[in-house]
Amino acid sequence: MSFIRPELLDAAHRWREVIAGGTLAALGTWTAWQGGYFLTPLGLSLLALGTAWALTAWRRLRFQQDGEAPGIVRVTEAQVAYYGPRVGGFVGLPELSEIRLLTLRGRRIWKLKQGDGQLLHIPVESDGAEALFDAFATLPGIDMAALVAALGSDAAPSDSRVVALAEVDRLLWARKGPGVVVR
Description:
- The protein contains 6 helices and 7 strands, in the order αααββββββαααβ.
- It has helices at residues 6-14, 16-33, 39-63, 132-137, 144-152, 160-165; strands at residues 72-76, 79-83, 88-92, 96-104, 107-114, 119-123, 167-174.
- It is an alpha+beta fold.
- A hairpin with a 2-residue loop joins strand 4 (96-104) and strand 5.
- The radius of gyration is 20 Å and the shape is globular.
């Protein structure tokens, strides 16, 4: 028997990384406040680390989307795999040439394009899609804040007939240069 409501436990579990980063930042502030030649730099270091951790965790939390979509996403060794009920495929992160956020019939979909033209469409709400945050963060020149902001900017239209016909395709990242560089 638990004295804490299940909804509160779920929310605390979801926000656990942000809470841990904030706690580390608070500990760093308290340590720096104690003063001294050793505690002040140590506290400021903990404050910076905790703040960075909390900010990254907050962005990762905003990247996760509520809802259910078919399919499973797996990211292993610089390869994104999507196993859907009807379609699926693989994309290697070194071969990735662009990332787009497609809105089609009210559902948002990651549109990943390789240098050879192959496309992989992954619904944003798919199981395991939150792993794409860390995978995308490894790409050169990507602005993760803009990526998270693009996810948060789509508002549901009021007319369902408009949703059925609407298609929005936003370019969020493109690889600069001639393509894949192999060393």
